[in-house]
Amino acid sequence: MRMFPLGDAAFLFSWTEEDGTTPSGIAARAARLRKQGWTGLRDVVPAYRTLAVHLNLRELAGAARRAGRSLAAEVERLAERLYRALVDEADGVPAEADRHIRLRVAYGGENGPDLNACAERSGMSSERFVEAHSSVVYAVAMIGFAPGFPYLSGLPEELAQPRLPSPRRKVPAGSVGVAGGQTGVYPVDSPGGWQLIGRTAERLFRPEAREPFLLAPGDRVSFVPVPAEEIEKPEEREFEPVTASGNGSSFRAEEIGLEVIKPGLLTTIQDAGRYGWLAYGVTEGGAMDTVSMRTANALVGNPEDAAVLEMTLLGASLKLRRDLLCAICGADMEARADGMSLPTDRPVWLRAGTFLEFGRAVRGCRAYLAVAGGIAVPPALGSRSTDDRAGLGGIAGQALASGDWVPVGPLPRESGRLAAVLKEQADRRAASWQAVSWHAGRIADNVAPSGSRAILRLVAGAEWEEFGEEGYRRLLEEEYRVEASSDRMGVRLSGPPIERNLQVELASHGVAPGTMQIPADGRPIILAAGCQPTGGYPKIAHVIGADLPLLAQLRPGDAVRFRLVGLEDAWAAWETTERNLHLLQAGVRHKEGGNS
Length: 596
Known about the structure:
21% helix; 10 helices; alpha+beta; single chain
């Protein structure tokens, strides 16, 4: 077993076939780690012959202070303990999981449009292909791509199939597919490039249920052939995601704080993220620039993880349905209230009926609007964050649209006192808004002036050595630019391609925000807050956690260069950011206590 850092907030443990460890055995290890409740362990993600362990640095920093150790020493201590625990479990780990799930499948026809072509490629009849596919007990090697999508190992070699040359735009939920040497089941309607051989009526992803996922890593799965009439048509299945329904009109009138007039380019509801579900293919997501989100929440008296609006490149136009205490942080989108320029990085009281408008970002990429009381859509899997790929959180699981109604929670007591003072000042001026005279300083230099060059700090990745001297030189000496195709899942870069010397493909494994992947074309992709929990490209490096807010504010066309640092430097930078945020929060409480 080998261990690699997965950036500065995760580890990746890797086994080889010679170790005699199976995907089910690794899944069993992951389940035990979860149950044991390790301090500083946030999540674990089994994938084939790897186990990604994601860390809670705040919890580890607290443990380090209590023990009189540095954060670096505490993380290294945890890594050593985890390594020993996982090595000690090498013997006696069950080769098979305890749970065996049988899925009824209608093979072929409209349920499996690729079955005949698959059978022909395998040199057998369709009946023989179905018999071979349904006679195996598979193991859930990992869950990824989409929430609840199982990658099943154990497919007979003769059934292996190529992916489609061009993915289908929509694959019905329940479709059973084959790609390469694995088989799987699409849990929700989604694009997909696997060969479709059948469909099951079983719901693999049930976000409204107490147990949202039918399958877990390590489970055994069998397919049972049934006639087509025994399963539902895709359009007949019921699916009730746990989100605010429709356009939010189901909320009570007194709960509505904002009406969306124009949504801008991409405006979503985000909080600190959706934790604990990575092993089931659910991204953590949350705000791309957590420093700006936490600062905005502090300014209006919210918990730092309260839900906010995140606006990308072109902001929204909103109408206030009630008086609100707000704060705007992050990118400069030239905010205006009833046509008047609005200050940022400070609490601002706005009167009901005011039109709040954001323009194009003139500096940075993402702006954050926090409202005292927080955006109060219902949580889905523990978070209000919008995950539009999974249809979770926010309003109807999607970005905001014109006509949406956005609910706001009750005003916190301290915020209420400040709001009353500002309202009185606005009333005296007969104004629609009033701001405090002070503003918060920037915690991190994460919003670079337009046209400037950003420098992101990196720690080496697991495959660093496989890129050689020329690869290091290009990465650390050349300039790259952000491509327009970048999004919340990842920032794509153009520039000199980086070539890997070793051409062996990697099995899918855990990744994290900040992971820099190098695909076959050599163009780096830096994974962002909305990235999938697993990936298969080589990892040359990772952007350190303290620089992820800067990554979030890079715009298409921005220039970026990289600097290699050590893990201790990365942890020290994280501690500096946290310390500055705590100082800001204390300063805001002092200012607002004086209602200044």
